[in-house]
Structures are given as structure tokens and as C-alpha cells.
Amino acid sequence: MSRRQFTLPHRVSTEPPDDTGCTVLHVDMDAFFASASLLARPDLRGTPVIIGGSGGRGVVLSATYEARRFGVTSAMPMGRARRLCPSATVLPPDHALYARISKAVMATFRDWTPIVEPLSVDEAFLDVSGALRRSGSPATIAGAIRDRVADEQGITCSVGVAPTKFVAKLASNLAKPDGLVVVPRDEVVPFVHALPVAALWGVGDKTEEVLLRLGLKTVGDIAHTPLDTLRRALGDASGQHLHDLSWGRDPRTVQTLREERSIGADSTFAEDVDDAVYIHRRLLQLSDKVAARMRAAELMGLTVSAKIRFSDFTTVTRARTLHDPTDTSRVIYAAARDLFDGLGLQRARIRLVGVRVSGLIPASTASVQGVLGEPDHGWRDADLAVDRASRRFGAGSVLPASLVTGARSPSRSQDPDLSLP
Amino acid sequence: MKFRVERDVLADAVTWVARGLPSRPPVPVLAGVLLDVAAEGTVTLSAFDYEVSARMTIPADVSEPGQVLVLGRLLADISRNLPDRPVEVETSGNKVQVTCGSSRFALLLMPVDEYPTLPASPEPSGSVPGDVFTQAVAQVAVAADRGDTLPILTGVRVVIEGEQMTLLATDRYRLAMRTLTWSPGATDASHVALIPARTLSETAKALGAAGAIDLSLGTAAGGEGLVGFEAGSRRTTTRLLDGDYPKVSSIFPSSSDTEAVVSTEELIEAVKRVALVAERNTPVRLKFADGQVAIEAGSGDEAQASEAVECVLTGPEIEIAFNPAFLLDGLHAVGTAHTRFSFTQPSRPAVLSGQAEVDGEADTAYRYVLMPVRFAS
User: Fold this and answer.
1) Which of A223, A78, A252, A222 is CA-nearest to residue A162?
2) How far, in Å, CA of B194 to CA of B179, rounded?
3) Cα(A83)–Cα(A60) distance, integer angstroms
4) CA-to-CA distance for B226 and B242, rounded, in angstroms?
């Protein structure tokens, strides 16, 4: 779904919305990083504030609504954001604070229903169908959640209430900031039909282009296009999918446990880099981070992929499947480095590198084929020791020597990291 | 150039010579087979791709000597499918005519002068019985690496000290070693060669039917970096792999705590069945106790299987997990009615060797060292 904002379609009825059967809530914190950072800087309330790396290559992670009014959006290069809104205060992100608030907010949700599906640190789907008898109608619950989050955390959130996930997410988007939108069951179809096609889940720039070429501007247009035509234009699966969505049909249920398909981390260089040694070092740092996260999640993976984005934003990804599943930094790094070297780049300017491990299986069932003549204690044991040290003395207390850059722990990179869980 | 030859003789020779020809050679002439027709009544067929050369001389009724180069695989396919009659081969213009009964084929001539010179015919350094050599190579080549991460591990290491020849291969997960006696030309023969495993197995299989295989190594092969094989009228050379082979002497456990003897065939059948539920990258688990070895595989809620096979155990019980494919490779390779397993610990390598009788002695001429699978947590 596109990140763009859509205006709220006019409600057909003037009655208070009937929330019967609207058991899916989508809760989204308003400008989460910005609001959270302002807790420590109440003096900046009501002024434009941007959260993100302040370096030349920083990216906007979040911005207050005052800054957004100037056109500042998430993921925008910091340089551009500063030009759009020169009066804004730029604050560095405090991920530890965000994680703490996120955890508390998710715990609050669980006071109403155990069926909570976190989508990221600042948004979640809730299924409240089991809480109605105890806590009242979905809209009542949504209101109570909003009040409690505001009281306990001092930040606001917006909630969409609808019969399906897809509509609930649209609704919360329209409720922003600090609002509540209920889309009653009977109004789902007129509601979605009034939206532009780009609002649909699964419609990105490419698909939107195809749809616009067919003269389909609104979701209503899609709904009234023969299914066969959509299938021909978009392929069987996505044609069917869009047709279902356009009539408000979304079979996805709220899943408490989202199975991780892959674990990865990306890192943008402060300046474009062509030095292989420097890039290797960054790959090592990312591999270290990914491996530590895999071990924390008790997962092992079989496929390592490396992502390289060049200065012109073209991106290549190369993957290799290993002989045995791994969660060891060294093994992931060796594969990532090999993949990078295998590209045979001759001083190409590189903007971003990423490392990802997929084919995840629980570590408890993973088996590893031993190698003849291997030492009794391998790199995995070293990694486990590093994990223990990190738990006690903080992340980055033990590092590969090539990553030590003085007093400051380099594992907390100065570069913005867009790959937060 | 003109000669007449029996269909079977031609088909056999072309198939042998052309067997290793690349389907997409870097230079077109390398897809060819060179026919050297001599006035004294022989045709010598040869093929060469800079790695492997093959040569065979067959008797023929020669009317006109000469030299031609034609597409090897095509000529092999044609000669195998011809009716069982004498085959007549002759040049006509820029083609070679192959006539047999009422079938006729015309093949385009390839430029002989662009064809590389084959390595010189090697002088034998000694000989080994064909059946012994073929079995030994098959036993060892199974453990060679098939991947491309470490090219030297795709080879079989041949070490010759006087009358003893040792073949060894490992892919780091298992190691196979076989010793055998051969008849060297000189009693103080001493050679080390790393031969690509795939080529060596194909060569050994193709030459094994002959009574004895002559081997040429070192300078006798016409230069370092080559090994030559000759059996009957077939001759072949192979380029050796270059590089330092890892030290492997420390791999063999010096002692064992537990020994178990099982029927090879019964264990193979049981492991094959149980392994059906072992998904990719999951092992079969073997629990050796006195009287029987329990084999099981599968985990969680998907599927499980278990089976037991009789075994004679000396020493403490042991539970150990193996990659089923690696275990089966070893069991197939021992080639005897019974297999002896020697263990130290569940995390240390196990050694498989063959023995004829349950209560007999193990034949340590062949040993297959297998590293177990361990669980990450």
C-alpha cells in the first residue's frame, strides 16, 4: 500500500457509526519517534521537529505534524527535509526509548485482548472479538486504548476500527493524528469504493500505473471491472486479490505470532564508498548484528543474501544457500563477503549494503554436519560468549577487532538504520 | 582416406574416445574426434580437451590412409545406431561419408591443422589389476567434494610408495582411504598425484574390464602434471589438480571406545527406509546397544520413522546422528557382508570398515571416516 495520505471519504449516513462486527482494530502511534523524543523536550512541543541522523546522508525517521505540514515525510533525505523546513529542530533517534515505550504500549493492548499482531514498533492489529462482553463495543475499546496510551505514555495514537485488517489500516490512516475512525460493516463497500486505487493493499507504483492505464482510478472502478480483465492485466493471483479487496473482502486474520521469514540489516554509508576493505568491514558489522539477532530469536538460517545499492540507486541482491543452517557471525560474513566479491566490482561507488539471512528454522531443531578435524570449540561458541558479555555489559562490549573505532561503540552505527524490526 | 571396419568395433572405439568430449567446447575443433588412418591397417581415434585425452587404436581394412577430424559425439551416436554390418568411411570433398548397409551419413570435415597436439604416449610406471583398481577408485571417489569451494578436494589423492598404492579423498565431512598393492616398474617408485575424482572414476570404470591397467606417473607420463592410463588398446591421460592437499593423518581416530558390527545390507535397507522422513539437512539417529542398533529420523509433528537392525557391540552404548546420504555412501563403499563401526564420542568422527564374517576381523585396507551431525542447541 502506498504511504500517501488519503482524504476521508464522506460518510454516507449521519447516524453514529454502527460498530457491530468491526472487531479488527489497527492502532498506529502518531509520529511515534517524534512524539516519544518530545517527552524529554517538552519545550519543543508544537514546533517542527525531525528525528533522524543529522549527518549529510541522514534520513528522516519521523517528524512532528508541524514539520510534516512543510512536506517533510519519513525516509526523506535529511538534506531535503532541512531545505523544506529550515526552522525544524533535528533530534537524533533514541531507539532504546522507543523500544521501551513500544513494549509498554503492546502490553497495554494485551490488557484488552491476547490477539495482538505487532506490525512494527509503533503499530499493531488487535482482534477484540473476544473482549466485547467484558469491555464493550469495539469503538468503546478503541477509545479506552487511546485514552490509556495517552495517559500512561504521554503520546497519542490513532485507531481504525473495521471488520477487516485492510480496512482497519486504512481507517487509522484517515484518523490521524489523534483520531478514531469506525468503518461500519455496511459502509465498507462505499468506503473503499471512494478511495483511489493506490490505497489498496498490494498496489505499489507499478500496479497503480497499470490500473491507471486501464482507466481505473478508484477502488470502485476496480470493483466494477470484470474479474477476467483484472486477471489478464495483473496476473491471476493479484487480479483476484485486488478484486476481493475492492469488495472489502480480506481473508487475513489477526496473527499473534508472525513467523519471521528472514532477518536482515542494511546500512547506508555517510558518503558513497568504493573501498572494498571499508565495505567488508561494514558487511562484518551487519553480519554480526544479524547473527546476534538470530541467536536472540533462537533461529538459524540457511540462505545468506547481500544487497548492494550503488550511488545511482540501482540495487543488486545476491544470495547463497549454505550447506548447513547457521547463526554464526563469521559464517554469515564469509558468505556475504564472497557474494560481494563475486560481483567483481571495480571501484563502483556504493551507497548502501545489506546482509540478510532467510530459510529460518528454530535453532532447537537445527542440525549441523560436523567438519573433520574441526576444533572442539568453534566460532559459534565465541559468538555465544559475546552474547553473554553483551547481556551483561551492553551491546558492542565485545567486537571483532576490525570494528573497534575508539571509545564509542561502533555497533550503534552513526548511520541511520532503516531496518529496525 | 578410406577404410572399412566392423560396426561394433567402431562404435565401441568412438564411444570410449568421445565419452568425455565437452558439449559446448571453448574452441569448436575440441568437439572433434581425430581419425588417424594408417596404411598398415589400423585406425587411431583420439580426442582431447586440454584436460583429458583419450586414444584407441582399432584394426581396419584400410584402402587409403589419411587424417580427418569430425564431430565426436555425432559420430558416436551414428555408429551406435548403425545396422550390424561392416561400416565404410571415406572422405569425399569437404565431407566424410559413413556408409553401412543402405544407410548413409555425410559429416562435415573439421580443420585438422587447428587441432591441438595430444600429450605424448606415456610410458607405464607400473600396473594394477583392473577389477581391484576400479573397486578402489569407486570406494574412494564417493568421498570427493562435488562442489566448487575448494577445487583440490574434488580430487583423489594417489600416493605410491614402492608396492603400496594409497587412494584418498575427502570433502571435509567424510574421508575415504583405500590401500592396495600394485606392480611398480621400479621397486623404489614414489609418486604423489591429485587426480580429478570424476575423470578418475569414469576412466577406472571404462578400463576396469581389462585384466590390467598400466599407470604412468611423474616424468613417465610425459611431464609433471599428467597421469596416464592404458589398458589393452585404450589410452588416456588426465591433467592433475594443482595445490596443497590438506593434512589428513590426524583425522583418523587413534583409538576407539565402542565397536559395532552390523550386516551391511540390512543396515542399508533400514537407513534408506528411515531416511524417507528425514527432510533436507536433518540426520538419521542411530542408537547402538548390545544386540541391536535402533535407527530413527524425523522430528516435531511432521513425520517420524524408526527401525532396528541386529548388531554386535563391544564397549559402551552410543547414540550418534549422521547425514543419511553420507552414511549410505560409506555402507555401499565397504563392499563386504558386514560393516564395523568404530566410535569414540557422539561428536567425534566414526570409522566404517568392512569385514566378511560377523566374528571376523575388520579389513582395514578400506576405511571411511564420517563426521557426525550435531544439534546446534
Assistant:
1) A252
2) 16
3) 13
4) 11
Q: How far is CA A98 from the centre of its chain?
A: 14
- What band does A418 get if pLDDT is binned at 50, 70 and 90? very low
CB contact under 8 A, A367 and B371: no
Cβ separation of B175 and A372 shorter than 8 Å?
Answer: yes
Cβ burial, residue B38 (10 Å; 0-12/13-18/19+):
middle
B31-83 residue pLDDT tens: 999 999 999 999 999 999 888 999 999 999 999 999 999 999 999 999 999 99
Which of chain B's residues have a Cβ under 8 Å away from the Cβ of A294?
Answer: none
Domain B126-249 CATH (choose: 3.40.50.360, 3.20.20.70, 3.40.5.10, 3.10.150.10):
3.10.150.10
Amino acid letter, A146: R
In this complex, do A367 and B374 lie within 8 Å of one another by their Cβ atoms? Answer: yes
* Tally of residues, chain A: 421
B 334-373 residues inside an 8 A Cβ radius of A? 347, 349, 369, 371-373
What residues does CATH 3.10.150.10 cover in chain B? 2-114, 126-249, 253-370
Helices and strands, counts by H and E, chain A: 15, 14
Longest Cα–Cα distance of chain B, Å, equals 79
ipTM: 0.76
C-alpha cell at A245: 479487496
| Cβ-based contacts of A368 with chain B (< 8 Å) | 373-376
pLDDT of residue B222: 58
pTM of the model: 0.68
Structural domains present in chain A:
15-185 (3.30.70.270), 194-246 (1.10.150.20), 262-419 (3.30.1490.100)
Nearest to B371 among A302, A366, A369 (CB): A369
Q: Which residues of A touch B375 (CB under 8 A)?
A: 364, 366-368
Residues whose CB falls within 8 Å of the CB of residue B17, separated by 6 or more in sequence, listed in order: B33, B45, B46, B47, B54, B55, B56, B72
* CA of B106 vs chain A CAs: smallest distance (Å): 46
| Chain B nearest-CA residue for A338 | B149
Please give the Cα distance from B187 to B208 (Å, whole number): 24
Instruction: Please tell us whether the domain made up of B2-114 is placed in CATH 3.10.150.10.
Output: yes
Q: Which residues of B touch A367 (CB under 8 A)?
A: 281-283, 321, 373-376
Q: Is A66 a catalytic residue?
A: no
Q: Which of A123, A259, A260, A271 is catalytic?
A: A123
CB-CB neighbors (< 8 A) of B171 in chain A: none
Query: Each residue of A245-269: pLDDT tens digit?
Result: 888 888 788 877 666 688 999 888 8
Nearest CA in chain A to B301: A365
Cβ-Cβ contacts under 8 Å between A and B: the total is: 62
Task: Give the type of residue at A368.
Answer: V
